[in-house]
Amino acid sequence: MTVQVELPCPKCKSTKMKFERPEIQETDIITCAACGHNLGTMASIREKMNKAYQRLNQPSAARKLQ
Length: 66
Description:
Blueprint (H helix, E strand, L loop, with lengths): L16 E2 L10 E4 L5 E4 H24 L1
Antiparallel strand pairs: 1-2, 2-3
């Protein structure tokens, strides 16, 4: 089974990542296949993405209340 995750690398902007196992686990370190940049663990990447998503949604919720 092949896992595909599209994460933009902050260094080279490539979205091709490589993994140690066929299935991603929370403790796996995600590395860019193009430039070798270490993006962190899958758990830390998910946490960063959730925080960014929450920041995007907060201003729109505040505008709806006014």
